[in-house]
Amino acid sequence: MSQKRLLNKVIVITGGAGLLGQEHAKAVLSEGATAILLDIDFDGLVHASIDLVAEYGTKVVLRQCDITNDEAVSKISLEINSSVGVPCGLVNNAAINPSVEKNTATFSRVESINYEEWKLHLDVGLYGAFLCSKVFGAAMIENGISGSIVNISSDHGIMAPNQSLYRVSGKPDSEQPVKPVMYSVVKHGLIGLSRYFATYWATSGIRTNSLCPGGVLNGQPEEFLQRFNQLVPLGRPANPNEYHGALLFLLSDDSTYMTGSTLVIDGGRSIW
């Protein structure tokens, strides 16, 4: 039941066109906030947000933005401040996430990864989070707002991927798909970024924490789900809406004494 913990607040969510980006938006909208959804793919963002706009109307604000571009992020921040209001919350959700429900052809092995591929993942997942934190956090401070930044890490931010999940029968080891190393580096890095900003802005009223979701049910092949479920004490992946409560806790005044922390919600997978 909604408690309107974010009533009349403005929350920025990066990677808004993605599955979790949309779920994050549903969470904050249900508590009375205005959700600013940013994504580099504006057409995809508009398409993904049709139901949200239909239900919440002007509370849903869609903007195209390349979060790896300093000028673009600064410009969008100024526009949001003047047209909607200064955000008090930021959800750094954008990332490149190779997943089995999309295409395991993007599951690059270490031996095949080049600098351009490495840089792209880190630019989006780490530099984008840093840049948005810097720009939107500075706006909060300049306007005397006690804000909250939530970096969406992963259970892969606290443990290595179990590559047996992605194994394809009949392929030699040298050709087996694996969760790319960049994903782990980015998700570990986001936890470090949270801790750094938590101390850097400790006296400025800005809290920064990491949320580490586990796997999310999203049309994965049955064979993959059977393997995955055996690795999770609760025996299943999360439903997409099962992170709402955790996000709202971190963004709202329910967690005013929490900063630099890592909240892991993975069905128990990381304890095995």
From TrEMBL:
Which InterPro entries would you find in this protein's record? NAD(P)-bd_dom_sf, SDR_fam
Q: Name one GO molecular function term.
A: oxidoreductase activity, acting on the CH-OH group of donors, NAD or NADP as acceptor
Q: Which UniProt keywords apply?
A: Oxidoreductase
Gene3D superfamilies recorded: NAD(P)-binding Rossmann-like Domain
Has the keyword Oxidoreductase been applied to this entry? yes
One matching Pfam family, short form? adh_short
What family does the database annotate?
Answer: Belongs to the short-chain dehydrogenases/reductases (SDR) family.
Q: What is this protein called?
A: Unannotated protein
- The organism named in the record is freshwater metagenome
